[in-house]
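Practice set, problem 2.
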Amino acid sequence: MATNEIGRNIAEVRSRIVRACERSRKSPDSVKLIAVSKKVTSDRIMSAAESGIKDFGESYVQEACVKISQPPLSEIKLNWHFIGHLQRNKVREVVGRFDTIHSVDSLALADEISRRSISQNLKTQILLEIRLDMAVPKFGFLPDELQEVVVKVNMMPGITLRGLMGMPPFSDSSEDSRPHFRRLKSLFDLLPDINRFVLSMGMSGDFEVAIEEGATQVRVGTAIFGHR
């Protein structure tokens, strides 16, 4: 995809964000756009950065670490978000490289992030991933266990719980995601004030619905970079 096409795509996504915010009577500044850059080459990420994107989401540890640590991306200030499933044995490679880990789906993983952060004298921002699709066994905390989990995570040093993340079941209709987003927002609203900052939900196919239901961050890849 040509550089100017990436720029046009970003402008279109931002315009859709503005319209979704107008419908839900909120400021466009209240929604952060994260460009999902997994399987995207560094030069195309640079094109997005030159079009004003500062936040990028990665899902694969090895690929992300190479891109982040080498020029040209290592030479500019970008905010990196880890949004994929994270195995405990990969935590040491993620802590210190990513501003936020969105996909914390177990207490064991939170504890490992805590331990690695302490060893580097860091505070790592995390989100708890909530399982929205009950029909299929996937990663994430069950809604009913969230309050107990939050208490335990808030006691762990080296990490700062900033909010929640979730992915609804796949569907061809964005409207099918709405009840799942609404459920996640209701859980977000129950968080203590110190944890209620980020609600990360919505991707290329449904981010407008997610914004209407309360998302503060949307993770958009295909609508910016095309199919990979």
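Problem 2, part (b): a different protein.
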Amino acid sequence: MTILGIDTCDKTAAAAIMTDGKVTAETAFVTGRTHSQVILPLAKRCLQDVGLSLSDVDVFAAVSGPGSYTGLRIGIAAVQGICYALDKPCVGVSALECLAYGVSAFEGTVCAVMHARQRLMYNAFFSVSGRQVHRLSADCITDAEELVRAMGAYDDVMVTGDVSLLDLGGIRCAPELLRRRSAASLCAAAMQHEPVTADRLLPDYLQITKAEKDLLG
């Protein structure tokens, strides 16, 4: 099976191809606010590097959240457009789950974190064993201090992702290079999900959008 994964949930746009569990191409680019201009060229470059076309891909994957509202919409819309055109299935994967797959060589409990705003952190806990990742908690948004206290409930926990705002004390962190989410990890995670049709690929922001805040105001 060949999976093409694209990630646009933050400042980095990334794409990767995995065939039968092996990463055959991967590329990333720090774009700021130009995801819509670069993500499809990045995906096409990966395909060209391995001599494939879009029609050769069995499943398309996108990060479904949490993350930038605009970035998530761009990535999901790109995957939906391709899947509608080619009648292909797709998978949406949590950005936090992708982080956990990036440290799948670890044995124990992984807390994947991303900065949301101010002192709030997106987070989820996962059990990792034998390179298999199993979810222990749903994605949520938690105050940084409260999150560190929650980590104390686990005997052996490692933190990965955006750790700069966390006062971790003696809690260990993943090596810095492994704390960065990758499109290859997205593909690995996508292999463990049941593909859906393009109309069922939806973003999961975890926070209300600015338009919703303005409406409530």
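Answer key, part (b): The chain is about 30% helix and 30% strand. The chain has two domains: 2-95+181-216, 103-179.
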